[in-house]
Amino acid sequence: MDNTDKKLLNLIQQDFPCAPRPFEELGKKAQLSGEETIRRIRALKDEGVIRQIGAIFDTRRMGYASSLVAMKIAPERLDEAAAVINEHPGVSHNYGRNHDYNLWFTIALPPTVSLERTVNRLHELAGAQKTRLLPTLRLFKIGVQLDVTGESNPAEPLPSGAVWSWKTAPEAAVVTEKEIQAIRCLQEDLPVHPDAYAQLGAKWGLSEEQLFSYVESFKERQMIRRYAAVLHHRSAGFVVNGMGVWKVPVDRVEELGPVMGSFRGVSHCYQRPTYDDWPYTIFTMMHGRNGPEIKAMVAAIAEATGTAEYAVLYSVTEYKKIRVKYFSLELDSWAEKYAATPASKN
Questions:
Q1: Is residue 205 situated within a structural domain?
Q2: Which of 32, 41, 101, 326 is 20 to 30 A (C-alpha) from 19?
Q3: How many CA atoms lie within 13 A of 7 on its CB side?
């Protein structure tokens, strides 16, 4: 990648143009023609740097229940258990990490499906020794925007006010059948073509004007957080992924959560529940080009908050990483294959 490629990657992670000829609009920001922009974006996709360009929806506004889940699996069975978890269409991310709880995945389910019952069934199918459900109690920051140019310091805080928090989960938006069709369309990968939206919409019987109207409506209703690109972290040079977990007293979570989320290299910052064997209240996801970058972020967060009790869980194996598919018909097939009956957890 040259500097122009890196600039393009930074731009498309922030906000991708919703316009009749989007690559021309994007090119203007990078002082490129539409043709040259398309050539570069195609090359970056072919090289595996760009994972997808599409709508990034807010899970809770879509009426979905979601959670991070930690499982303790016998080490010799980790790959086998991960394969079982990967089969579930609601699982978007699944990692092996360096901890007794060695399998970590995220799952999102529509309101018609029980999250707890499904996780209990996955616990049984995977042969887990222990399973901990870790839903978001409070969100301080969300959004992976990697500075591919390397011009910023990930261990520095963002400007004041860049981090926000919700104390209660947002209400689910009411969507029509026509809007569900639009959602299914907008979550697909945008074709790298001069008339990209016309090409995308044609597969779903929608015009580009209709797509733009839906995007505007969904943004106004806070269903779409942004329409943007998601990168393959490792291909973009961010080869280390560390999950910092912090033992912050509950009465200080609201104070320190925004501070932890303010650092540039932190992509996600949440409050999650604790258990007898899991005392950590705040989670920070960090992405770096190397181990020292992660360690510098951790040290900066610890110093800024005065938090001395924490752990960093590194990703050892990436078993699955996809975008959440909303209103997918695949859930019915999984339920038929694995009748989701309750199972006991240790």
A1: no
A2: 326
A3: 11
Nearest to 217 by CA among 255, 179, 249, 248: 179
Instruction: Assign residue 23 the CATH number of its domain.
Output: 1.10.10
Confirm whether pTM is higher than 0.85.
yes
Sign of CA dihedral 10, 11, 14, 16: negative
pLDDT at 346: 45
Assigned token pair, 119:
């996780």
Q: How far apart are CA 26 and CA 149, in angstroms?
A: 17
Q: Please tell me whether residue 303 adopts helix, strand or coil conformation.
A: helix
pLDDT tens profile 102-136: 999 999 999 889 999 999 999 999 999 999 999 99
Residue 88, CA distances (Å) to 125, 325, 333 in order: 11, 12, 10
Domain of residue 103 covers 65-161+234-321
Residue 201 is assigned to a structural domain of this protein:
no
Q: Which residues are catalytic?
A: 93
Pair (150, 29) in one structural domain: no
Do residues 294 and 264 both lie within one domain? yes
The full length of the chain comes to: 346
Nearest to 103 by CA among 75, 124, 125: 75
Count of domains observed in the chain: 2
Using only C-alpha atoms, the chain has a radius of gyration, in whole angstroms, of 20
Residue 169 CB burial class (10 angstroms; 0-12, 13-18, ≥19): middle
Task: Based on the fold, state whether residues 92 and 138 are members of the same structural domain.
Answer: yes
**Residue 16 lies inside a defined structural domain of this protein:** yes
Query: In 3D, which of 193, 207, 218, 164 has the Cα closest to residue 326?
Result: 218
Same domain, 238 and 286: yes
The predicted-structure confidence for 28-48, as pLDDT tens digits, reads as follows 999 999 999 999 999 999 999
DSSP of 61-90: TTT-EEEEEEEE--GGGHHHHHHHHHTSTT
Instruction: Report the distance separating Cα 118 and Cα 116, nearest Å.
Output: 5
Distance (Å) of CA 193 to CA 66, 154, 232, 240: 34, 34, 21, 33
Calpha distance 310→298 (Å, rounded): 9
- CATH number of the domain encompassing residue 265: 3.30.70.3460
Residue 196 lies in a domain: no
